[in-house]
Task: structure prediction
Amino acid sequence: MNRFHLYHGTYLLFGVVVVVNALSSGVGSGLGASEILMALGGVGISLSSVYTLLTADLDDVSISRVCLGAIGVGTLLFIIGTTLHFLA
Result:
């Protein structure tokens, strides 16, 4: 698997976690504007990642290790934070 697929797959996962976090925040108190906007943002991130994965020309893509590592660590921290939010 190359960096391109890892990078955009991680963005897809990040978008899904943002949606789950937004919806879980609004379950008890009802969905407010901030939860709706956060969920829409997560859906947008996920859809743009899927679109890029399906339509990109792999010959023109260059993703550095630093960039891949940064999105990977950021997504991992967000998943840990969301999990801790559920457990609290």
